[in-house]
Amino acid sequence: MAENYRRRGKFEEVAFIFPNAPNIPITVNFGMQMPGWYDIIAFNDLAQQQDQPGILISRDYFHSLIKAEIDKGIPSSRIILGGFSQGGSISIFAGLTSPHPLAGIFGLSSYLLLGDSLATYLTPQIKAANSSTLIFMGHGDSDQLVKVEWGQETANRLKTLGWRVDFHVYKGLQHNADPKEMDDLETWLRERLPAQG
Fold first, then answer.
1. Helix, coil or strand: residue 171
2. How many angstroms from the chain centroid is the CA of residue 176?
3. Taking the chain, what is the end-to-end CA distance rounded to the nearest angstrom?
4. Quick check: helix, strand or coil at residue 193?
5. What is the pLDDT of residue 197?
6. What are phi and psi of 69, to 5 degrees?
7. 22-66, pLDDT tens digit by residue?
8. Distance CA 8, CA 131 (A)
9. How many CA atoms lie within 13 A of 34 on its CB side?
10. How far apart are CA 146 and CA 150, in angstroms?
11. Torsional class of 109: left (φ above 0), alpha (ψ -120 to 50), beta (otherwise)
């Protein structure tokens, strides 16, 4: 993604940071180690049991990445969190619970983590920091791993909580990215991070 933008002279003032998830045992993968921001205990609906300790560890790591950029002099209003699948899901959760106001949050083929207890992580200060943060979500209608209904339910729940969510569905797209989705994301990113000259 970043290389594509660079080749086309896009987002020249933007630093892209792509953290790698650690290798951890994943329960639905018979406990085998694989990259993951949190364990996936079950994968059949959004109300499933979730790996709260792992999610909070990854959230804190993402918050430390935000803090490191702020310490370098980057205003938090010029920082966007985002990712695909688990990366998008943890980005949404970390972004919503960030104590710093962000330029935006995006999740592709993603869903809301700890949705039933989200309010416990939204102190008045944290809610105020990102109450106007815009969220982009993209999802394929043929995604058999992270169902499009989970993405839609996430968008609806976030809207109910007061966030503005731009939710896009891509026809025929499975658990993958799509050129149209990347174009829509690029437009959204340009709006959030206009060139400052």
1. coil
2. 15
3. 22
4. coil
5. 67
6. -70, -40
7. 999 999 999 999 999 999 998 887 667 899 999 999 999 999 999
8. 33
9. 10
10. 7
11. left
Q: At what angle do helices 86-96 and 52-71 cross, to 10 degrees?
A: 70
Phi, psi (deg, nearest 5) at residue 174? -90, -150
The structure tokens 């970390």 sit at 94
CA distance 166 to 163: 10
Cα-based angle 193, 61, 163 (whole degrees, multiple of 5): 50
Q: What is the pLDDT of residue 25?
A: 96
Per the structure block, which two tokens stand in for 64? 């430390």
Active-site positions read 85, 143, 175
Tokens encoding 54: 């792992």
Coil, strand, or helix at residue 75? Answer: coil
pLDDT for the residue numbered 7:
77
Please name the residues in contact with 155: beta carbons below 8 A apart, sequence gap of 6 or more: 135, 137, 165, 167
Q: What pLDDT sits at residue 47? A: 65
Rounded-to-10 torsion of CA 135, 136, 141, 147:
-40
Q: Which amino acid is at 142?
A: S
Q: Where are the alpha helices (DSSP H) in the chain?
A: 2-7, 52-71, 86-96, 124-130, 148-160, 179-192
